[in-house]
Amino acid sequence: MTCKRKVELGPRSYSIHIGPNLLSSLGALCSEEGMEGYALLISDDNVDKLYGETAARSLREAGIVATRMVVPAGEESKSHEQLIRIYDAALAAGLERSSFMIALGGGVVGDLAGYAAATYLRGVRYVQAPTSLLAMVDSAVGGKTGINLPQGKNLIGAFHQPALVAADTMTLRSLPLREFCAGLAEVVKYGVIADPSLFDVLERKSPEALMEDDALLEDIICRSCEIKADVVRKDEREGGLRAVLNFGHTLGHAIEQVAGYGVYLHGEAIAMGMVFAARLSEQLQGFPAEDTARLLRLLQHLRLPVARPEVSWPDVAAALSRDKKRAGGTVGFVLAEQLGTVRYGCPVPADVLERVWNESGEPWSRSKE
Ligand SMILES: NC(=O)c1ccc[n+]([C@@H]2O[C@H](COP(=O)([O-])OP(=O)(O)OC[C@H]3O[C@@H](n4cnc5c(N)ncnc54)[C@H](O)[C@@H]3O)[C@@H](O)[C@H]2O)c1
User: Fold this and answer.
1) Cα angle at 47 between 131 and 172, to 5 degrees?
2) Catalytic residue among 68, 160, 253, 308
3) Has domain 3-174 been given CATH number 3.30.60.50?
4) How many CA atoms lie within 13 A of 332 on its CB side?
5) Which residues have CB under 8 Å from 309's CB, separation 6+?
């Protein structure tokens, strides 16, 4: 079975296909959307080994002349160095304005290839073929692309919507469990911001059982994409509402920055951030304490961290205020009123932030793996 959704953005609208073995029909899906001729298939070295040939064969069968290009796996590849390598490969492969790029991989490849497509020849079309759960439920949809600078994550980027998203759920079978659980953190987020029934679904199965339940996984990914697509449709460039997608991210980003990238996976930092945001919500929005407890139990059930990490509050507070300066002094927290209803742009007094941080239990640590 395949589930199909649409991101409605006028001339920038596109389809999201979710289902098993979609990589074998990637070429046909591209052709249906009018993408033909020359293409650059970008992947990382883990994913290319596993799925590069299947994707390339499918493109060939559809008459698309695809050149494969591989970047090292990991966040470090969201760099100028890899971006230049992509431009070089695109030029060598003869990509023109009418050509396109394909991001085959997790969020790192998606963000990097998407930014390359946004800037090469002032913009060419691109396809997101996500292979990590995080990319399927979050980063492949919505058109945020970018790379990092030594000073911080995602500081260079562009909004550039893909022309197509094709998520082959069979690829999740090879995803390491820790990465899978990190992706589930974003699904929990959708539960908090829009659809508490996702909580019921996730509470019933262990992550291992979920990983093998293709039909349920497809439903969860589909629902997550639906929620994200709806938010993006209403606020493509994050003028306001799109900020709700950042529930748990304000603190999560600060934790990632202070701990050093790679210590916590993105989803793990977001899990800690969501617990923090829930506690702030209790104090400031009347969010029920039993719902914070439910969130905490669910995250633990999904093998995600819930307690305060081993980083110091002054460092975290400094990272939060740097974030605020970058956004012109307007970063507010996304807080929940109840499961399924959140408000964005909520100011939180500094003393409340510090008190809730101090009340967040024993530090939780995970050494760099
Ligand atoms: N653009 C957005 O809206 C958005 C949203 C959220 C996160 N992001 C970005 O996404 C990135 C994180 O994405 P991620 O968690 O997918 O990380 P990732 O791309 O680094 O992938 C995680 C690891 O899993 C491997 N992998 C991916 N798919 C696999 C598969 N099917 N089988 C085996 N191994 C596989 C990768 O090689 C990598 O080692 C961050 O850079 C973050 O900033 C972007």
Assistant:
1) 35
2) 253
3) no
4) 18
5) 255, 259, 264, 269, 272, 363, 364, 365
- Give the global pTM: 0.96
Give residue 177 CA to ligand 1 midpoint distance, Å. 13
Given this model, what pLDDT does residue 369 score?
37
Separation of alpha carbons 225 and 194, rounded Å: 12
Angstrom distance (rounded) from CA 38 to CA 26 = 14
Any idea where the domains of the chain sit in the sequence? 3-174, 177-358
Chain position carrying tokens 């002054």: 314
pLDDT at residue number 307: 87
Contact 217, 358 (CB under 8 A): no
Question: Of the listed 17, 78, 125, 228, which one is catalytic?
Answer: 228
Say which CATH superfamily domain 177-358 falls into.
Answer: Dehydroquinate synthase-like - alpha domain (1.20.1090.10)
Separation of CA 343 from chain center: 21
Nearest CA to ligand 1 atom 5: 139
User: Which member of 5, 148, 246, 268 is catalytic?
Assistant: 246
Intra-chain end-to-end CA distance of the chain, in Å: 36
Lining ligand 1 with CB less than 6 A are 44, 46-47, 50, 73-75, 78, 105-109, 111, 131-132, 134-135, 138-139, 142, 144, 153-154, 171, 174-175, 179, 266
Give the distance (Å) from ligand 1 centre to CA of residue 108: 5
pLDDT in tens, 305-330: 998 888 999 999 999 988 766 666 66
> pLDDT tens for residues 140-171?
999 999 999 988 889 999 999 999 999 999 99
Phi, psi of 360 (to 5 degrees): -85, 25
Task: Please state the φ and ψ torsions of residue 272, each to the nearest 5 degrees.
Answer: -65, -40
Q: Which residue has the tokens 């490969």?
A: 89
Q: Do domains 3-174 and 177-358 have the same CATH topology?
A: no
Record the tokens describing residue 266, joined without a space: 């993105």
Are the beta carbons of 42 and 86 closer than 8 angstroms? Answer: yes
Rg of the chain taking only CA atoms, in angstroms:
20
Measured from the CA of 144, which atom of ligand 1 is nearest?
A: 1
